[in-house]
From TrEMBL:
Membrane topology, from the record: Multi-pass membrane protein
Similarity field: Belongs to the TM2 family.
InterPro entries: TM2, TM2D1-3-like
Keyword tags: Glycoprotein, Membrane, Signal, Transmembrane, Transmembrane helix
Residue spans crossing the bilayer: 190-210, 222-244
Protein name from the UniProt record: TM2 domain-containing protein 3
Record-annotated TM2 domain positions: 189-236
One term under GO cellular component: membrane
Pfam family, one: TM2
Cell compartment(s), UniProt: Membrane
Length: 253
């Protein structure tokens, strides 16, 4: 009986051990399955975050459609040879002979449309112009800034530093904006004829000096009766030749 009881006890222990081992294996598989199920959404979410942060956005910035400022000066579908200088770029030929006609190869700038003599659109064309630098142009071919702080009536006549810009329809070599020394030529609205008439008729009372804005000289002539006539005669001569002018230094009109 004793060996049989021992065998039965061993069988029960083996069955219990087998049951515990199977339970342990099953519990381990269940835990791994739970971990896998929970980790997959996290990895997918992390992957979506990674892909979102690294990929380029779907909507791209709109390309710049701003039109350059020079386009407003360029007539649409006009003759290319008559375009303003700001509407084209030309290959400058500095080997041309000064004062002689020269031909230059030019190309229209972006957003500029022009045609040839046959009304066909073109980009490359040639223009004819006189070989000379911009600062050598005639005074009618450029516009300069004016100064109202210099004296126009002075000896010697004063000059001022002006900034000149070539007109749009004029072509030349070099910079189209350049400095130049010019004579003072601004006016304050005083008329030479009016000043001379006042000097002849009412100069003894200083009316001519008052009109020109020279109050101290006018008061001196008024209280001295025109310097007993001598000052009056001198002022008639000085205003007549233009030596005496407005007090602000401007020119007569």
């Amino acid at each position: 009986m004793a060996p049989v009881a021992v065998l039965r006890a061993l069988r029960r222990l083996c069955s219990v051990a087998l049951f515990l081992s199977q339970l342990y294996v099953l519990s381990g598989r269940a835990g791994s399955l739970m971990t896998t199920k929970h980790s997959q959404p996290q990895s997918a979410f992390a992957k979506s975050l990674t892909s979102t942060s690294t990929n380029t956005p779907y909507f791209k910035e709109a390309e710049s459609t701003e039109i350059p400022s020079y386009v407003t000066k360029c007539p649409s579908n006009g003759l290319c040879s008559r375009l303003p200088a700001d509407c084209m770029t030309c290959n400058t030929n500095y080997s041309c002979i000064y004062g002689k006609p020269a031909t230059f190869d030019c190309k229209v700038k972006p957003h500029v449309h022009c045609v040839d003599q046959n009304n066909r659109e073109q980009e490359n064309f040639t223009i004819n112009m006189t070989c000379q630098f911009c600062w050598q142009l005639a005074t009618a071919d450029y516009v300069c800034t004016n100064s109202t702080s210099c004296m126009t009536v002075s000896c010697p006549r004063q000059r001022y530093n002006a900034t000149c810009t070539v007109r749009d329809n004029v072509h030349c070599l070099g910079n189209r904006v350049f400095p130049k020394m010019l004579y003072c030529n601004w006016t304050g609205g005083y008329k030479w004829s009016t000043a001379l008439a006042l000097s002849i008729t009412l100069g003894g009372f200083g009316a001519d000096r008052f009109y020109l804005g020279q109050w101290r000289e006018g008061l001196g002539k008024l209280f001295s009766f025109g310097g007993l006539g001598i000052w009056t005669l001198i002022d008639v001569l000085l205003i007549g030749v233009g030596y005496v002018g407005p007090a602000d230094g401007s020119l007569y009109i």
